[in-house]
Design a protein that fits this description.
The chain contains four helices and 13 strands. It is of the alpha+beta class. The protein has one domain: Sandwich (Jelly Rolls). A six-stranded antiparallel beta sheet has the order 3-4-5-12-7-10. It is globular and about 55 Å long.
């Protein structure tokens, strides 16, 4: 059963419109910050392996805004840890919030929901839907349009996201669900 009508009704409420304006203002402020500085500050090598490789611990001092327009905490990536085949980070969906619809060009995504309840709309026109709750894993194949939506108006949803793309934000592609209708 799809709960698409519930979030759509919620999206029409005036308070959600005000919330969206607040999220966009926050997003603009975060984008204005120096992303390279945040990633450099997150690097903390722990040990060299002796073969030109290193083991790295990554501590992220602050959040950044991803292309999906959600707060995220950079974890493992090519930039932060020298990863060659994956990235992993934590993403937060604010209460009543949603990511911008998007795809990951050529890359798989695995998600573990730490807390909250999220509806992920996916496929052509985002007409399909799946709901995940804390403790659930979700797999999204390469190039599948999707949009996660926090079903709570009061609590954030938090998830650990891993992708077989070490350049976390480079292959995020905006998706227009209305274009699928044309």
């Amino acid at each position: 059963m799809s709960l698409t009508s519930l979030p759509l009704r919620r999206a029409r409420r005036e308070s959600d419109a005000e919330h969206t304006v607040g999220l966009r203002a926050r997003a603009a402020a975060i984008l204005a910050q120096d992303r390279d500085h945040a990633i450099a500050a997150a690097k903390t090598p722990v040990a060299e392996t002796g073969a030109g490789q290193r083991v790295a611990r990554v501590s992220t001092p602050r959040e950044i805004l991803g292309k999906q327009r959600l707060p995220m905490f950079v974890g493992i990536s090519a930039e932060s840890a020298g990863a060659k085949g994956l990235c992993m980070h934590m993403v937060v969906i604010p209460p009543g919030g949603a990511a911008e619809p998007h795809t990951h060009a050529g890359y798989e995504t695995a998600i573990y929901l730490l807390e909250g309840r999220v509806e992920t709309r996916y496929g052509a026109g985002l007409k399909q839907s799946i709901i995940t709750e804390a403790g659930d894993f979700l797999f999204i194949p390469p190039n599948v349009p999707h949009q996660p939506v926090n079903l709570s108006d009061t609590q954030p949803a938090r998830a650990i996201v891993a992708r077989n793309d070490p350049d976390e934000q480079e292959n995020v592609v905006p998706y227009d669900p209305a274009a699928a209708e044309r």
